[in-house]
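Problem 12. The chain below contains 520 residues. Write out its predicted structure in token notation.
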Amino acid sequence: MDNSEGASTSHPEARQHVALTTGVAISDVIATDFSEGKWENSVWLQAYREELGIDVKAAWYTKGAEATRQKVSVAIASGKIPDVIAVNQEQLSALSKTSLYTDLTNIFEQYASPLTKSIILGDDLRGLESATFNGKLIAIPGLNSAIDGASFLWLRKDWLDRLGLQVPGTTAELYEVIRAFTLQDPDGNGKHDTVGLALSNSFLNMGLAEAIGIFNAFDAYPKIWIGGKEGKLVYGSAQPEVKPALVFLNKLFEEGLMELDFAAKDTGRAGELVASGKVGVMFGAMWNGMYPMQLTKDNDADSDWRAFPIVSRDELPANPQVKLNVDNYYVVRSGYAHPEALLQLINFWTELNYGDTSQARFDHFLGPLPAPGHHYAVAKVWKVEKNLQAHLKLMEVFKTGDYSILNAEEKGYYDHILKYQAGENAYAQYEKVFGSTGSYAVMNDYKKGSLFKMDGFYGASTNAMNTLLVTVDQLVEEYYTKVIMGVESIEGFESFIAKLNKIGLEDVTREVNEWKSHRR
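Solution.
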């Protein structure tokens, strides 16, 4: 690629030598090949210097989500944070009680580009409201698409076909598929070496090898706030609808139809099982077609993972739960001389991704290797439903052949799907997510059917949430795990909920409903 096409030499916001420090979180995706020099010399930082005049320096490097969380929390507690810091919602709430932040209300209005504003305002102001404390916008929300957190039923379609089974639509039908995938040698190797359902020990967290989709099948919604009696919000984890879901999972466990050591398996190990080709059912996110299911395809060219709607306990479609999706909140240190620099970094990101960007320039930052990808960008916000719109545009192009309607990112997906259709299995992941048989085809059905169950709470974390909800969630996960494994009886559910209310859930619920009564 000609770098003269990929990198711009001027920018309307360019200026001379503004220094900006930030913490650098090294995600698992880039950890293997990461080096400090690689980050410091990346095309992102070069462009920030040359096009914006912003010289970004690392205040620290942390590897992994937990190490990053701890480092940021310690920095906040010490009162010494970098010029720009990415925090989670709990940390943002802690910052709101200090004088460490800059009020960005006017900065956002003045320096966010029209494109950036349209993206950040595109979720009905939920993101901005979650970053607003006492009328002050204390952070810019790094939005992601809420619907991208929905659960999907991922199935080995080739196993279904081999055993003459249909795609399940109900929990009863799903049970029969899981049973067959365990007992009827679906891979045809003559051995009893497959398992029906993959599950991880973090099964209440959306992502990979989770059980959220199973709970949703029974009209249960753990870890989100839903409408209850008299218009009040109640915590989904504590509602009686979770009981039949737990009974269903316990039945699978007792009959040996799922991973019996799931309580000791994190998502990484669950992903390894998927890659090995020894499991046929998994509930997870839209991106599972890329990881870990591309690994299955790499190991077995005949494998065919497909995304389907989550099943329901009856004939009515289930409602996949979703919630406000903010990757990070970007806070500017109080006293930093150039708070507008944060908005300029975000404007750079939105223009590159959603503006009038050439393919060469897009690929320079976000294309195939050696481009570093989005993990090296300092600040970013994703367009609401961006991925769904990409799928819909791709479907239009495959009908008409006119790919001029695609932006640079979408054109990349189109090219990759064509390569898969031509027999290059390394590109199967793009079909499995964005193609006609991909997860976004199902996502579109979810949306057309108005099926999403949105979390009723999207405000700033309350005091009780910060101090008590983590404990509540930990106890819920422990109790659910014990019930699934038969260690605890479902008959003790009501007593368990009474315990949760006593240790703090009642206080959290009260504060959540106080927020609800005052929200705009």
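Discussion. The radius of gyration is 24 Å. Students who got a different answer should revisit the alignment rule from Section 12.3.
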